[in-house]
Amino acid sequence: MAAEGPLLLSLDLSGTFVFALNGAMTAVRAAKLDIVGVVALAMITGLGGGIIRDILIGAAPPATFRDWRYLAVAGGGGLVAFVLSRALNRFALTITMLDAAGLGLFAVTGTSKALAFGLGAGQAVILGVITGVGGGTLRDVLIREIPTVLYSGLYAIPALIAAIITAAATRGHLYGSPAAVAAAGACFAVRMIGVHFDLNVPGPPGARANRGKRATGGDGF
After folding, report:
1. Is 129 a domain residue?
2. Which of 31, 91, 147, 195 could form a disulfide with 143 if both were Cys (CB 3.0 to 4.6 A apart)?
3. What residues contact residue 120 under an 8 Å CB cut-off, 6+ apart?
């Protein structure tokens, strides 16, 4: 097994909550949805990446539908954001930081679970990144926006860094809580540096970079 069961579960649930919170805040502030829409978007954002990962590695049914805690945590994140939306609006940076933390957590768990199912390191890294950005991409599509993972900010790159560190630690028989925290921390640090300095990867020659960002975090490349 590439990851310890309790460690993988705790990281997965933590990532689910912070991404659900981010998705709910997007629904409240950007899409102006009611409570049903807020909770639905929270659950899609929090659970989407993990569901995609589990389908691709053949873990049927996905963990979301085998463990009630995933649905409870995602729904709870949505309700928290809905009830406290006015207060949370004053903590945009905090939400961005939570989003960056969720990205790192999901990149680590996605890579770990893929390795646990016998996939190669390269394939596991790809699935780690997909796990990290998948929920936010679904969120953006549902509110009829171009997924910002395709055009703005440092987002997929930090997830890639976390996934590579996780795969290398696992292959070197060094994976455990310290390695998982280090990988997620590296992702968080690179993401927040990108946010602070408004960094973007190069766009097409002559094209103006689209630097639009959500105050709630959101996915960027």
Report:
1. yes
2. 31
3. none
